[in-house]
Amino acid sequence: MRRRRWPMDSLLTFSLSRFRDVPAKDACYCVLALFTLRCLSDDAAAGSVISVPEDADFRTLYAARGESGLAERIDAALAALGHANPQAVGALFTAFSFARDLEMPATRRDRALREVLGDLAPGIFMAHPEEQSSAARESVVNALIEHIAADAGRDPDVASAPAGLVGLMAALASPQAGERIYDPACRFGELLAAAGLATGEADGSAATHFFGETDDPVLAAVGAMRLLIARRAEQNIRCNAPLLQPAFAEGPGALARFDVVLSTLPPRIHPATVPSQRHYVQDPYRRFRRGTPAKQHPEMGFLQHMVECLAPGTGRLVGLFSRGVLVRGSDEQEVRRLLLEEGLVETVIALPEKLLFEHRAAPVLLVLRAGRTDDDVLLLDASDQYKARRHQNVLEDSHIARILELVAARRDVPGVARRVALDAIRAEDFSLHLPRYIRQDSGAPRSQAALRAEHAALLGELRERAAEVDALLDEGP
């Protein structure tokens, strides 16, 4: 009987079902590792810069998939791949062992691995040339990871930013071939992969370099695999806590600089990765000289870290944050003041609620640029730019195009966008709360989305102020 050929975007998602009762993150790693091996084996056969030893080739594993000890042979193949490519692969596959860490009985484990190898079989999966493009491969990986994130709901350990959002962020950053691109909280590597596609760089080119950090070793491996699958060999993803000690430095007290810095902050920042107040003050890189972030709000620390990583004169920053960064007082107000007066803040975009799987509140995009000669800020209310689905709102191509059009025009649109002079922001004590600047037409009813977004922002501001007061009271007289 002829075997059914699955659509590419569905097959890896189907392969996940082979690993029932395995943690979602581990299942994702297993499927992606085998997919990576298949892609690199195909690329090596076509003459790529990646070297795949015969005993590590996907076809070798596939041909012997019925033999015992399959998990051990997969581990050995991945280790051999790393030894053969110390720069591009190196220790990538050391974070997880199929034989040691895959929590399944050995017999069921090897059966599942045998079935996944069959799912990815040559001649059945990626059988057509157009399915070998980097864009097609990224689409497959994106479908897999979005399925995991949606299935896990609000589990922050497998949270991933959706495709529409990362596509918008990559377009706003406008990465170019040959640039250095960095994400300090890279989750599954989705933003780095989207930035790679946005460069328009030819498949297999090594001109663009990708850098990322995450505090989870398995996610670091997944992010690196994602870039390798898309033929981005010049990548360096580290398991690290960047606020405590950045992974990329050019010398004592000198951070590495990047042309593009972009990130969607992790939904749960582990307390152990957040610096103490003393650490912020004594940071050898002086990243937090504009103001010390509160312990309960490390996202302002991430923003300052990202700013300090910008290449002078050319660096662009696109970050997704809670709306609290627009309004919180104390040291955060001072940080906003300095960023604004230095002319770094270019655009603020209020997004719809329920864009993220794990966090339902409406977020905000901040776009900063080094070397600006203007000090005005474009404020854009895009809270109504979405398509509602049952559990999540999504940004479709039409919404992304509309937002990019408004950003490019940088002109006032009543009730939607306003180009605000620094003096006007100064008069509002450097608050960037959008309703202070963008007035709705009194003759037109406000959308439910806009009302919900403002309501959530106001409640968030109230909670932030209450937390600040509680902290002061706890300190005592």
TrEMBL record:
Alphabetized UniProt keyword annotations: Methyltransferase, Restriction system, S-adenosyl-L-methionine, Transferase
Catalytically driven reaction(s): a 2'-deoxyadenosine in DNA + S-adenosyl-L-methionine = an N(6)-methyl-2'-deoxyadenosine in DNA + S-adenosyl-L-homocysteine + H(+)
SUPFAM superfamilies named among the record's database cross-references: S-adenosyl-L-methionine-dependent methyltransferases (SSF53335)
Domain of life: Bacteria
Chain ranges of the DNA methylase adenine-specific domain: 145-440
GO biological process, one term: DNA restriction-modification system
GO MF terms held by the record: DNA binding; N-methyltransferase activity; site-specific DNA-methyltransferase (adenine-specific) activity
Record-linked InterPro entries: DNA_Adenine_Mtase, DNA_methylase_A-5, SAM-dependent_MTases_sf
Enzyme Commission designation: 2.1.1.72
Family the UniProt entry places it in: Belongs to the N(4)/N(6)-methyltransferase family.
Name of the protein this chain belongs to: site-specific DNA-methyltransferase (adenine-specific)
